[in-house]
Every structure is written in structure tokens, then in C-alpha cells.
Amino acid sequence: MGNVAGKKILTLAISLLAVLTLLLQPCAAARPVPGTATIIDGRRSLHLPLRGSLLRGPESVAFDGDGAGPYSGVSDGRVLKWNGLARRWSTYAYGPGYNAKACTASRTRPAEVTESTCGRPLGLRFHYESGNLYIADAYKGLMRVGPGGGEAKVLVAEADGAPLRFTNGVDIDQVTGEVFFTDSSMNYQRSQHERVTTTGDSTGRLMKYNPKTNSVTVLQSGITYPNGLAISADRTHLVVALTGPCKMMRYWIKGPKAGTSEPLADLPGYPDNVRADLKGGFWVALHREKMELSFGPDDHLLAMRINANGQVVQVMRGSKSVRPTEVVEREVGKLYIVTLSY
After folding, report:
1. Which residues form the Strictosidine synthase conserved region domain (predicted)?
2. What domains appear along the chain, each with residue ranges and CATH number?
3. What Rg value do the Cα atoms of the chain yield, rounded?
4. Of 233, 234, 268, which Cα lies nearest the Cα of 248?
């Protein structure tokens, strides 16, 4: 599979967490990894641990227009900001109704109980020109907080008369300011994410929010577990991770195919978030491989880099204890791995 590539990897993790599991169900056959694909060793990493009592997370990270961060959402409903090794993490934003006392999990009141009220930030993206941070909160919907943070405002809680039940991924067209986001299921909430996979639920939606008109448009419905998404470098299409089917989908937003979607890639595992890389392609985090065994060598796929045509050009491998939700490439040679456990 090629030579092992040396890269500096920063890992965001929380200590002593239970892994969020995806129950296996059959996926389409994965496209073989080309023999030219290089391998990154995910074990060669530095850690930025989110230390806290019973905090869970992160799911996604964002960097602001000045390059500060990362920012990350956690299970008590807050978005935190990394301020360097000296100051570490601080609260940046939170949703309406957040209360520190009521939203802090305990052994008798775990995060799974509090998050439906306090919120659970998943996808995060900054609009660089305005400084606004858009937050895909699994329970509250699409939210936005202005420069400097504070209490976020809910922008979208329903679309076409149907409430958002599992708001998940988000990305922004930095030129137009349009915000694209996913609702993974119209039947199940984030706390029931296993059922989205095991039932083959196909009620997910891909949507667009226009900040100039404060309007939301459903671009496509009837999607099977749409999760993370990313806009292409040329701003002509979106790439959407479909977790249950182990696939990547391309949705065209410009050009002769605008308004249509097509398969982009079959994957050998369950994808979570997808982020644009620095070469016109995308990094796809794999929560686990399709046929992964709990025994045997402590090694599995963590993520894959695909090019604009959906071909695998690079893979990352590491310990089975690492369950990535996102891989972010900030500069050549530096990757951020977001993981719910380490």
C-alpha cells in the first residue's frame, strides 16, 4: 500500500470515555485501495485532551478566520476554544437555555440524559468574513453565534414543516455565505443513532440556509444516514458522508447537473465527518471498518483521503482504541484527528 508517510498529527480526545458504537449492517463492496496510496501512522500524534469530569466529545472542530482554535463542541452543550498549552480550553459558546449546573453530567445523570435539553454541538464551521460560527446542534437545529461567542441563536429548527431531529454536519460557501447542513433522520434523534443504522432509515435530508433571506431550502430528502459534508474547492458540489451505506455522495450545486446527486465512492468502513483537504480532495474519518474484529492485531483504518474523483490516494491507520469522527488538514504535514475515545 505504499510507504508510511510522516505527518504531525494532533489528537483531540477525552479520557475514560465509552466509545460511541455503530452496529454493523451490510454495506456495498468497498473500492479497493490503490497500490499507490500512501499510509500515515496515526499513532505518531500529540494530544490536546479535553479534560473534565464526565464530558464527552468532541465531534468536530473549527478554526476561525485568524487561524485561532481549534473550537470544539462537547456533550454539555458548549463549544470550547483551545487557547494554547498555558490557558488550554475555555467556554466560547452555548445554546439557548444552557445552565452550567443543570447541564453538567454526573454519574447519576449522564450526558445522554442532559444533552436533549442542553444541546449537543456536532458540526462546526466559521464564516470567515463575518466571524460568525455556525453550529449544527443535534437537538436544537442550526445555530449561529457572532464574533466573540456567547449565546447562540437558533436559525433553523424545522424545514418544510418537519422538525429537525438529528442536525449533524455543516459547511459554508465562503463566497456567498450560504450554509449547507444535514439532518440525519426524521425519525430518530442522536441518542438513537444506532437505530438509524440498523433500521436502514432513509429519511435524512440535505439542506441550505441563506443568511441574506433567513430562509431554508431542502435540497434532497430520502437520504440514508447523511452525516458530515464538505463543499468542494471549486464550490460546484457538496460531498456528503452516508454512514449506514458506507458511501460518499456528490450533490451538485452549480453547473449543468445542479440539483442532482450521484455516488462518489464506496468505503471500507463507516464514515462520519468529511473535510476538504489542501489538494482539491477530501479527508473522510472512518468510525470503524465494516468487517473489523475485536481481536487480532491492534490496527485498523482511521481515515482515508479521496481525490475529486472518489479515488483513495492516502490512508491513515492506528490503534483500534481510536474511533475518529473527523480529520482536518490545516497545513501541509499537520492533521487534526477528532476522536470520541483514545
Report:
1. 168-256
2. 22-64+71-339 (2.120.10.30)
3. 18
4. 268
